[in-house]
Specification:
This protein is an alpha/beta fold and 434 residues long. The chain is built from 17 helices and 14 strands. The chain folds into two domains: 2-218 and 414-429, Rossmann fold (3-Layer(aba) Sandwich); 230-409, Rossmann fold. Strands 3-2-1-4-5-6-7 form a seven-stranded parallel β-sheet, with helices on both faces. Strands 10-11-9-8-12-13-14 form a seven-stranded parallel β-sheet, with helices on both faces. The radius of gyration is 23 Å and the shape is globular.
């Protein structure tokens, strides 16, 4: 009866996305023009892919963007260790996550057994085309990637499904419950295995009808430290010497101005002060440099080294691991100028002293863990940011203590990727018609 209650909203969603397909084609072309899709690979978003399916068992992992992709890298490595014959198809929806996988997959020890493709949009015909071509033996979706048509099509083919490290914010829970409770129940009931990243997420998922939600821990707490180009790090560390410096990481619009204002306040107190701004979207680098032109910022994407004092805009991809090591006093972006925050665990694993604004909803559990350990400072506004940076620069010993606490707090759940890999391999062994 419950599945019948979800049939009508599922049919309405399928019909709406079918009607939207022509507009979605246009939307994809516009994304391509803005650099948000890969030239030559746009057809993958419609389920069209000439890449041959590899022989043998194939596990499909889907992660939305960079954060989710980073979190599953240890899981991918664990799967490769536990089953040396397993093939992995990893799908994402952004060019930045594709670039990250292109860089990181070769180092995970799976050779040609792991490949990346772009996920099709949630149009029934496109989802069906994707599944018909790849024929995965099991599939795992990461965090909040709940695409009803894609999941329904996989379930209709009796493909065993898992939802890993599931997250469901209170706002998303209220929207599902208000607008589409039947569709939520129908979608969640397709999963044979669901693990939530926190007890609160598990409770919200269960309230929407998810069966038997487990809480083995947060996969993002098990990720390894971000990689670094050791030679480049050594070169710039030698160039900067003991100069005072701090980093505003993964910033969003409005936060670069706050970082610049903090620099103006602090520069008279700290000769040679370097403020590094790493925008979440590196393509904004030129725009940020123009807006802060009074400080004559230099840009890494333009091949420029840090100035003797001032701003350095690190507008390149995949270098946060290098930046966190170079400037271990870190403000986490999207927490003052936007809602939700960025991942505080990445600098924590590298022993950085961390501050974040009031909006860390996307990483509430991680932020709470760090707060409990005394490893993150919560700030209210731009002046508070400047005051916190001042404190850290005046007292490097306190910054080191805070960084050590962050590193310890971020080391939780180190064995989780191996445990989840075992669960996924067991899912692969389940019959397609249970």
């Amino acid at each position: 009866m419950r599945r019948l209650k979800g049939a009508l909203p599922a049919a309405l969603w399928a019909g709406a996305t079918n009607l939207a397909a022509p507009g979605l084609r246009l939307w994809l072309r516009r994304r391509l023009a803005r650099g948000k899709e890969r030239p030559g690979r746009l057809a993958e978003r419609r389920g069209v892919d000439p890449t041959p399916r590899p022989p043998g068992r194939l596990l499909w992992l889907h992660a939305a963007s960079v954060g989710e992709t980073v979190s599953v890298l240890p899981l991918i490595a664990a799967l490769g260790r536990q089953d040396p014959h397993l093939n992995l198809l990893v799908t994402t929806g952004t060019v930045t996550s594709a670039a990250l996988l292109q860089e990181r997959l070769p180092g995970l020890g799976l050779g040609q057994r792991a490949r990346h493709r772009f996920v099709p949009l949630d149009v029934p015909a496109w989802a069906a085309r994707f599944l018909t071509h790849w024929r995965p033996d099991a599939a795992a979706f990461v965090e909040s990637e709940l695409w009803p048509n894609l999941i329904a099509a996989a379930a209709a083919r009796n493909i065993p499904l898992a939802l890993l490290n599931a997250r469901l914010s209170a706002l998303s829970w209220r929207r599902w419950r208000l607008f589409a409770p039947g569709l939520a129940r129908r979608t969640l009931s397709a999963f044979r295995l669901i693990t939530a990243c926190s007890e609160a997420d598990a409770a919200r998922l269960s309230a929407l009808g998810a069966p038997a939600v487990e809480t083995p821990g947060d996969l993002k707490l098990a990720a390894p430290p971000l990689p670094v180009d050791l030679a480049e790090h050594a070169r710039l560390a030698a160039l900067l010497g003991t100069r005072p410096r701090w980093l505003a990481a993964s910033t969003h619009p409005g936060e670069e101005a706050l970082a610049a204002e903090a620099h103006r306040r602090l520069a008279p107190e700290f000769p040679g002060l370097l403020t590094i701004i790493a925008p979440r979207h590196p393509e904004r680098g030129a725009e940020i440099a123009s807006a802060l032109s009074d400080l004559a910022p230099r840009r890494r994407a333009a091949g420029e080294d840090p100035p003797e004092q001032g701003l350095w805009i690190a507008d390149t991809l995949g270098e946060l691991g290098f930046l966190y090591r170079l400037a271990p006093v870190v403000f986490i972006g999207k927490s003052l100028g936007g809602r939700g925050g960025q991942n505080p665990l990445e600098p924590a694993r590298l022993g950085a002293a961390i501050a974040a604004g009031p909006h860390m909803e996307n990483f509430a559990a991680a932020a709470a863990r760090l707060e409990e350990a005394g490893a993150i400072a919560r700030i209210a506004d731009g002046p508070a940011l400047a005051n916190w940076v001042r404190t850290m620069l005046h007292d490097p010993a306190a910054a080191r203590v805070m960084g050590a606490a962050a590193r310890a707090a971020a080391a939780a759940n180190a064995g989780l990727p191996e445990r989840l890999a075992t669960s996924l391999l067991a899912l692969l062994d389940q019959p397609k018609n249970p």
